[in-house]
Amino acid sequence: xxxxxxxxxxxxxxxxxxxxxxxxxxxxxxxxxxxxxxxxxxxxxxxxxxxxxxxxxxxxxxxxxxxxxxxxxxxxxxxxxxxxxxxxxxxxxxxxxxxxxxxxxxxxxxxxxxxxxxxxxxxxxxxxxxxxxxxxxxxxxxxxxxxxxxxxxxxxxxxxxxxxxxxxxxxxxxxxxxxxxxxxxxxxxxxxxxxxxxxxxxxxxxxxxxxxxxxxxxxxxxxxxxxxxxxxxxxxxxxxxxxxxxxxxxxxxxxxxxxxxxxxxxxxxxxxxxxxxxxxxxxxxxxxxxxxxxxxxxxxxx
Length: 302
Description:
By secondary structure, this protein is mostly beta strands. About 5% of the residues lie in helices and about 40% in strands.
């Protein structure tokens, strides 16, 4: 143990995770979110020779966790919310990425030092309202999700092929917990699996841009998705009430650009680099069906 209580508590606060934001705040360029036992908001301001500035907008956006004593500016070392695994996904398919934060303190005897702090903590689910605003939705999605647990990893996948993303939470010295998403919003979605040819087989690093009406979404295919976690290698786009994606542009790591038009919601499509859609699987169907010719491909110069 450290020589002072404060140094000891500070030593417990190094569980920060860094994940890239895609279009969480409707900003095309990636930003970074820090979920940490030491500090639960973005650094107030950073700049570099590249001309990039980071502003702390967590509080204004609704992404603020409570501190033990005196507020965030007085207490710098211990938060009621530790923040471990983080998942960015659109749980209600409204077209805006929401945020899930798994919680669980890193010190199993923390209650001996701070009676108000628990080893098992409730997670957070923040619903994206659009325009950079979030509201906590943990208690509004049923009683199971908000139960205190020693949460660590978080990953998402559509386990039942119904078009919405389910959530897997791992716990320290405990079982993995699978939360099935029973989305009653009526919103539609489109899911996309990628097959690279010139690029890597899974299309990792490919940027997909989907246009629906006047809205534009962007996701990147990535492998790891958080602390000791990896979500399924399928991109899921919430389309709201729209019956189709008007335009899809895929920018592969090789420089290849594939474009699709008028792709119907309610299915998982498999897109092969340079060849367009090669398989279509409606939600609820066990096998894919032959694809129709709906794609055009072009070579991007670099």
